[in-house]
Specification:
By secondary structure, the chain is an alpha/beta fold. About 40% of the residues lie in helices and about 25% in strands.
Length: about 280
């Protein structure tokens, strides 16, 4: 039986603000798990991939650059197995993500999508959106300033003007949701799902017997797994806000995060998902 050849593509540094080491570590850890399962895995930078140096029939990747995403989509259309899909990566651009999640009735903050040279103060005032988050809408975030918290429509207008001057064409403005921040990680097609509240001490699994934790776990899994399907992602993570009444709303959904809080378990499950996808892909060809 021929050895399965896999290209593992790292994320370009510009798209790993403060996470270059963590992003590289999760990919290398997954590659090691796949090698233990008999695969030949070669590691490439996103720049090497964009230069056309990858020929393996299976690609696992953390790509974010526009050229890379287009290449992944073309290879996928030609029959290469690509995880995450280039189409899923594109769906995580803020404007597309907001449209998809809101259009799928997945809990997500009330949002408006605007041109950055647009006057929005009166519109935000009519909507009663005082505290808001403004996110670059036309591409993946590269800097912390690509996501901005504002306290008033006047401040929102100023930030939008800054985005315009930085060359951003579109922005997503979302209502600020009060509540507790919840971070989550998942791998589609596996039992793996990890979540925690970063501003609270994490409760050991053996101690998680309360009904509220179980309810949050079930609700969060259902929402995130549905969102991953709608966005076409296998490897994902993000953030939710949990309101005082326990309801959850996604505020961010990412393709292939660093899994720094649960790397070993995540890597094992990502490798399992990749092997399952390879088997299914081969059965169709």
């Amino acid at each position: 039986m021929a050895t399965t050849r896999i290209a593992a593509i790292l994320r370009a540094g510009a798209f790993s603000p403060n996470h270059i080491g963590n992003d590289a570590t999760i990919m290398n850890t997954v590659a090691e798990q796949l090698r233990k399962r008999g695969c030949e895995v070669n590691i490439y930078s996103e720049e090497q991939f964009a230069a056309g140096r990858v020929s393996e029939p299976v690609i696992i990747n953390m790509c974010r650059e526009e050229r890379s995403t287009a290449m992944l989509q073309r290879l996928e259309d030609e029959g290469t197995l690509v995880i995450n899909s280039g189409y899923g990566i594109e769906n995580c651009i803020r404007e597309r993500q907001a449209r998809i999640l809101l259009g799928s009735n997945i809990p997500y903050p009330e949002s408006i999508i605007v041109d950055t040279d647009e006057v929005v103060k009166s519109r935000l005032q009519r909507l009663g959106m005082q505290q808001c988050w403004i996110k670059r809408g036309d591409f993946h975030a590269q800097h912390a300033e690509d996501v901005s918290y504002v306290r008033s429509p006047h401040e929102a207008q100023d930030v939008l003007q800054e985005y315009f001057l930085r060359g951003f064409r579109r922005a997503v403005i979302s209502r600020h949701l009060p509540g507790q921040l919840v971070k989550f990680y998942g791998v589609a097609g596996t039992p793996f799902f990890h979540w925690f509240k970063p501003f609270e001490p994490e409760t050991p699994k053996s101690a998680r017997t309360d009904e509220s934790h179980r309810a949050t776990d079930e609700q969060l899994k259902a929402i995130c797994r549905r969102a991953a399907r709608e966005l076409n992602l296998t490897v994902y993570g993000g953030e939710c806000i949990q309101a005082d009444d326990g309801t959850l709303s996604i505020i961010d959904f990412n393709d292939w995060p660093s899994f720094s809080a649960c790397r070993a378990e995540a890597a094992t499950n990502i490798a399992k998902a990749v092997m399952t996808a390879i088997k299914e892909h081969n059965s169709k060809t």
